[in-house]
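Today's session is about reading a structure prediction critically. Students often jump straight to the picture, but the first step is always the sequence itself: look for stretches that repeat, for charged clusters, for runs of hydrophobic residues. Only then move on to the predicted structure, which in these notes is written as discrete structure tokens rather than atom positions. Here is the chain we will use throughout the hour.
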Amino acid sequence: MPEQPSISIIIKALNEEHRIAGAIESALQALEGLDGEVILADSASTDRTLEIARRYPIRIVTLEKIADRSCGAGAQLGYQHSRGQFICLIDGDMKLHRGFITTALEHLARDPKLAGVGGLIREQDTSNIEFEARERRAEPDRQPGPVSRLDCGGLYRREAIEQIGYFTDRNLHGGEELDLGCRLHAAGWSLARVDSLAIDHHGHSDGDFRLLARRFQNKTAFAAGEAFRAAFGRPHFPLIFRNNNAFLLCAIIHLWWLSMLATPFLLRGWTMPAALLVLLAFPFAAMSLKWRSGRYALYAVSAWNLYAVGFWFGLLRSRIRPDAWIDSHVVADVSPGQAAA
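Below is the predicted structure for this chain, in token form.
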């Protein structure tokens, strides 16, 4: 077997023909002067992603079965084919900044209980409400300092991943980084984000409601229910429950539904339709006032309802053992050193 490299950069991708070249090139540039490998973990793409990726000196692995596609499966697929002492995870629509890995390695060397390090994320596409709102919220886990998760990837210590059994849960269609972060914290590890630019994220440029439809079609909307089921009864359940706002939003939406269903039985006369109208309008009005945007209010409330429905689909889905080998095959395996020779 070849000597173990220091770093494995895993790029997980599905139909990223427009972005994959930039992601791969950024990963190769980030490894300049370092001992590492780049692995494209492809989720059975049907566009030109694999064709484009073959031009580069990287290992390419792809799923055998389309039914295995999920956000969690993509990262775990790359991990099971990786050999590095440190694992860097990015998506196929991202670019990794040169210098981030060196900075992250320095932080990991200083703190032996630090399982992973992320950096600052720069959103490049805010043409739809979801990514625009993400930029405006200034989420705590995207700021420098201790964090619960490393959204949009980061550099992880293999030793920590091996201790908790697997990298990402292949059953999760979203929230896999939070699940990973909570399992690491429950095992006594920590995570941090440093004040160094790490990722340019291009995201989806779909229209607002087209993106929502896509979330349901690709099962991303099921993620909260899947995460709840995956964590229930396990040591990290309190952490994932506390750090996942989707659970609270789903509960609020269910209470909203129940309130509207109960109103006809509790009120009579003109007060009943008036109360129903107030209940129906309240979340839209509240979000319009908060964000000063009727467009955002309509999108947000629609999204909450979609995810509340999706919660039950995710909760009731059958699970595969998360550490089970994911059926896949190697499409290409060329190291940077071999290509240079």
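Discussion point for the tutorial: The mean pLDDT is 91.
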